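Reopening: Cytochrome P450 4C1 still failing for me.
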Amino acid sequence: MNKVLKADKIYSSPFRVSIGNLLFFVTTDPEQLKLALFGSKTVEKGSLFDFARPWIGSGLVTAPYLTWQVHRKLIQPTFGPTILKSFLEIFVAESVMVADQMECELNGPEFEVSNYFSRCTMGSLCKTVMGVKLDAYAGENNPYVKAFRKVTAGIVRRGFSPWIHPDFIFYRTKLGKDQQKYIKFMHDFTEKLISTKKKQLLERGNRESNEDAEDDRYNTATRREAFLDHIIKLSEHTKILTDEEIRDQVHTFMATGSLSTSDTIGFVMLMLASHPCVQEKVYEELCEIYGDGNGDAQLNVTQEAIARMTYLERVIKETLRLFPAVPLIVREVSEDLDIGGRSLPKGSTMVLNILGVQRSEKYWLDPLKFDPDRFLPENFAKQPQCSYIPFGGGPRNCIAQKYAMLLAKTLVATLLRRYVLTHDKIVQIKDIRIKFEVVLLPVEPITIGIKRRT
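Support: Ran it again with your exact input. Result attached.
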């Protein structure tokens, strides 16, 4: 990531990079980013995504455009406002569980936050979007998280190592063999998730309409139709989605949805712990909404309360500006493309440097300063379009961005009502070491301390 950021300061956009026989053009120019995100000649994801297909197949992230169009239209309703509102109860319960689990860290040394947040986001995603409980994967050192990290790191390493691009070479290396092992584990996980849901749906169909089993609070019989229910029904009744396509979508949402959200929340907590004045302003906003009492066992999180958390939302957006979950996006050029007075050849790939444009001094004043007020409406209106695109843009933007914001707000609000976040060794943003493993990660695990609010 450092090399990518430095190259952007040396060369004008788009600059050319070759990896083996693959040709890339890297850009941080908002107009060029806009053309790539919204243009008809850059709708495909590019050959590098072939390295991820053994893992997530043709899910929304990797699917060819025509397949993506059909699947996106089918899946979009499962992330509508009414369904998102119905998730709040589970978000609150999972957030309170995390706050309770953190009690053991109270007044102690700084601790790593990743395990806590990945448990919360995976638990939330299983119970809401998937409609099942899989508590066996909620403990420390979650094996799914480990497998995810290994696979994404392997994909990036392979991408930058052209000598192992060919499958017949890659799968004879230790990296390739390990990749197969971790992918099999994640596939087994999602197979279990799907079979659990199918069993629930079958049992529900055989029960009387007045069923009141405890598990129904997590399914859709009377409250909502979650993503997994919806696509299984499409598979069984309309044959629009095959069983393999269902698995691909589940792999995609489990991997990219839960873990990229937990990584973002980790960066949010680091920023709050490193900026006590910002943290206090968030707490004051929560007091305006909920009163002065601290340590509420369970906040009354409603859509109205979430909408009032405007400063907290600006904090999350500023964190995403500095630490976007996906710092680089690639798009294949399907026809010769005129861009910025230059012509990109058919078959080349555009690399959209999201991190670069969002930290660029060309488009942001004092870009490495943490300033949530950049996102006051009157300030953000002055920003060039596509200078802030943490969830991508255009038709292939992130389908779950509202879901992620809702979960992040609920978890952060719950923790800040109970705890003061501290960080002993505050590091300037420019010195926080980060790495690219498909998602953006800190080189050193994020640690914070907590004290009881009084």
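Residues 208-214, 216-223 have pLDDT under 50 and may be disordered. If you still see a failure, please send the error message rather than a screenshot.
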